[in-house]
Design a protein that fits this description.
Elements lengths: L1 E5 L6 E7 L13 E7 L4 E7 L7 E6 L41 E6 L4 H12 L9 E6 L5 H13 L5 E7 L2 H4 L5 E4 L11 H22 L5 E4 L4 H10 L9 E3 L2 H15 L6 E2 L2 E3 L7 E3 L4 E2 L2 E2 H4 L3 H23 L4 H16 L8 E6 L12 E7 L7 E2 L7 H20 L1 H4 L19
Parallel strand pairs: 6-7, 6-9, 7-8, 9-10, 10-11
Antiparallel strand pairs: 1-2, 2-5, 3-4, 12-15, 13-14, 15-16, 17-18, 18-19
Helix pairs in contact: 1-9, 4-5, 6-8
Length: about 450
């Protein structure tokens, strides 16, 4: 029996020849069925494809492409927690990898049935994030309530025929889904409901991220990189980190890249240039309305922004306010929060860590403040300027300047994060929680 698969790469053909043992030469593959397997011990559910009365075939692949090549001579075999066609894809074992493939990476995504993930997962699978020669396994975490939608997401990934997408697994137990994860993108969080105080949201979502931190600590790769998106993301990242003592604190990030992208856009509009001419933009502090879009260190065409845009009043007032409230304006126009642009900013944030930072530039991400060179209080997750060599690690930028205006606003955001930290002390192992938040600074998109 010959099977033909078409891939997006110049529609080349992979030809698979299956040899069946004599006892089963009359087996009808059309009798295959989809079966559901549930694990009662952890309440996780996985969908797997199984063939009845069919012995394991020997697979020979001939690939007519001078681009990405599939490994040769690997038997398809069921995986313990796979979905559909991904149960029959081929393990990229070290001895079978071709020169054109890198080692497969495991990427876990929570909130995988949500709108942000619906945009993000296909970017991950296509190679847009980690590169066109990087095979990927997606490990998708949902909830009992969202499990049907999670299956729908897996079906769409199946139907998209991404050559780089080697495995997909779905489940509702982080201890299973996060197994061997090398990247964990934690999107899922409870949205703020009507009448809900910020302290309530910190506690509810904090419990989610405390549990996910424990799961990552127990089963993920020891050097897993963790990107926290679910809000309030700075303090959620701190909670997750404190519950994962085996993972280096430096590996935890809170997403502030969307704020940076919005700031770049506004500066470009004001200066009348395309946004790729804007560089060195920093978001300092919390992902809230105390965030500080830094125009003092930003550049346009390599020239300080303050020399290009001489309207200081606009920079201090309107620019900052527009960046802080952009999400709320979008909700009024669009009727929902910014899912697509958030997904793009996650891609940007990851790529900033896996590709070298352009000479002289930097990017913003919320990271642990211990050892920072700026004098910002230690023990919190604070957005600061970083550079990377492209190895997944980063270093804080030292060549930045401050004036009274910038420093005053940085300290205001610092005070808020210190108050949030006290509010979740019961989740970080630091004593009894005491909530005395300085005010409601929740971003409109969190409502």
């Amino acid at each position: 029996m010959k099977c033909h698969m078409y891939t997006p790469y110049n529609i080349h053909i992979i030809s698979l020849t299956l040899k069946l043992t004599p006892a089963y030469t009359t087996t009808d593959v059309s009798k295959s069925k989809l079966s559901y397997v549930s694990s009662s011990s952890r309440l996780s559910y996985h969908r797997r494809l199984s063939f009845q009365h069919l012995s394991r075939p020997t697979v020979r692949c001939s690939v007519t492409s001078n681009k990405i090549q599939a490994p040769v001579g690997v038997d398809p075999k069921p995986k313990p927690d796979c979905y559909g066609v991904f149960c029959l894809t081929y393990d990229l074992k070290a001895e079978d990898e071709t020169k054109s493939w890198k080692k497969m990476i495991n990427v876990a995504v929570s909130g995988a049935a949500g709108m942000i993930a619906n945009h993000l997962l296909f970017k991950l699978a296509s190679g847009e994030v980690f590169g066109p020669d990087q095979p990927i396994a997606l490990k998708l975490l949902g909830s009992e309530r969202s499990f049907g939608a999670l299956e729908g997401v897996a079906m769409e990934l199946e139907d998209s025929l991404y050559p780089l997408l080697r495995e997909v697994s779905i489940g509702i137990d982080p201890y299973e889904v996060f197994q061997d994860a090398e990247w964990a993108l934690l999107i899922g969080a409870k949205p703020r409901g009507p009448g809900m105080e910020r302290a309530d949201l910190l506690d509810i979502n904090g419990q989610i991220f405390a549990e996910q931190g424990k799961a990552l600590n127990a089963v993920a790769s020891p050097n897993v990189k963790v990107m926290v998106v679910g809000n309030p993301c700075n303090t959620n990242a701190l909670i997750c980190m404190k519950n994962a003592p085996k993972i280096p604190p430096k590996n935890f990030h809170a997403l502030t890249r969307l704020d940076e992208n919005r700031a770049k856009c506004q500066l470009a509009l004001k200066a009348g240039v395309f946004y790729d001419k804007v560089s060195n933009v920093t978001i300092w502090g919390n992902h809230s309305t105390t965030q500080v879009p830094d125009f003092l260190n930003a550049k346009i065409h390599g020239i300080p922004v303050t020399e290009v845009i001489r309207d200081r009043k606009w920079l201090e007032e309107e620019f900052t306010q527009v960046v802080q409230t952009r999400g709320g304006v979008l909700i009024k126009k669009w009727g929902r929060s910014s899912a697509a642009s958030t997904a793009v900013s996650i891609v940007d944030a990851i790529r900033s860590l896996v590709t070298p930072t352009p000479e002289g530039d930097w990017f913003s991400t919320g990271v642990y403040t211990n050892g920072n060179p700026y004098g910002i209080a230690e023990g919190i997750v604070f957005s600061m300027p970083c550079r990377s060599k492209g190895d997944g690690d980063y270093e804080l930028v030292k060549d930045v300047i401050f004036d009274d205006y910038l420093w005053k606003r940085i300290k205001k955001s610092e005070d808020e994060l210190l108050a949030e930290k006290k509010c979740v002390a019961h989740l970080t192992g630091e004593g009894i929680a005491v909530c005395d938040l300085p005010g409601d600074t929740m971003l409109p998109g969190e409502m």
